[in-house]
Amino acid sequence: MEHLLGQEWEIVPAGGATGEAFIALKDKEQKLFLKRNTSPFLAVLSAEGIVPKLVWTKRLENGDVITAQHWLNGRELSHQEMNEEQVAKLLQKIHKSEPLLSMLKRLGKSPLRPESILTQIETSLDQDVVKIPAVNQAVAFLQNHILLVECDELVVCHGDVNHNNWLISDEEALFLIDWDGAIIADPAIDLGVLLHSYIPKKDWRAWLGRYGRTLDAGLEMRMKWHVIAQALSSIQWHKDKNRLEEMDRLVQHIHSILQDDQES
C-alpha cells in the first residue's frame, strides 16, 4: 500500500472487522482514510455529501481497488443528539436520493421485501433461541402481521443507523458512514431502529415532522415489524459470538416492544 503514496507517508491499520481500512499520515498534518475494495457506491455517497469527500480511487495490479477519503476530525453523535433536526434532514436526503437508488440498482441490488426477511429469520434462528418466550412471540408477531407491512416505497436504506455511524466534524458537518450493509427497502427499516433506539415515543411525531412525513398507524406498524426483525437477527448473531449479555439485552428490548403493542 505504501507505494501508492510514497515513502513519506505512514500507513497504519484503522481497525474494524474487515481489516481492509487504513489511515495514511504525512508530516502529522495530512491525513487520509484508505479502504480496499470499496463499492463504487462510495463515489455517489461522496458526491451527495453523505460521507467525507472521496479524494481518489486507484486500481492495483492484482485487481484490488483502493479509495482515499479526506480524514475529518470529529466525533460520533451522542444518543441525545440523534433527536436533532440535522439527523432527520440527512436521513430524509438519503431516502429521497435518486442517484443513490440508481447506483445500487446498477450494482445489482434487488429490493429487500418482508417475505425474504421473515424467511431468513425463520431459517437462521436455532432451537435454543426459538425456545426463548419473547423470541417465540416475536416470530409469531412477524408472521401474523406480514400482510400489514407491504410497502411500495422502496429507497436506499443504510441498515445500521446506530449513533456511532453518525460522524459530526469539528466544522459541524454531519455524515453517515459505514455503508457496507446498504439495501433497497422500506424506509421504515432505518426509521424504526432510529426512533425505537433513541427518540422518546412522545417525540416521534415531531422528529418525523422534521424528516418530512406524518406518523400514522401504517408507518408505526412497519417500523415495529422491522425493529423486531432486526433484533431477532441480532440475537442470533450475538449468541453465535457468545456475547450473551448483549443477546439478553435484545431479548428484553423485544419483550418491551411486544408489551407496548399489547398495551396500546
Automatic annotation (TrEMBL):
SUPFAM superfamilies: Protein kinase-like (PK-like). Transmembrane segments: none annotated. Keywords: Transferase. Pfam families: APH (PF01636). Gene3D superfamilies: 3.90.1200.10. One of its GO terms (molecular function) is transferase activity. Residues 24-216 form the Aminoglycoside phosphotransferase domain. PANTHER family: CELL CYCLE REGULATOR CCRZ, PHOSPHOTRANSFERASE YTMP-RELATED. This is Phosphotransferase. It comes from Peribacillus cavernae.
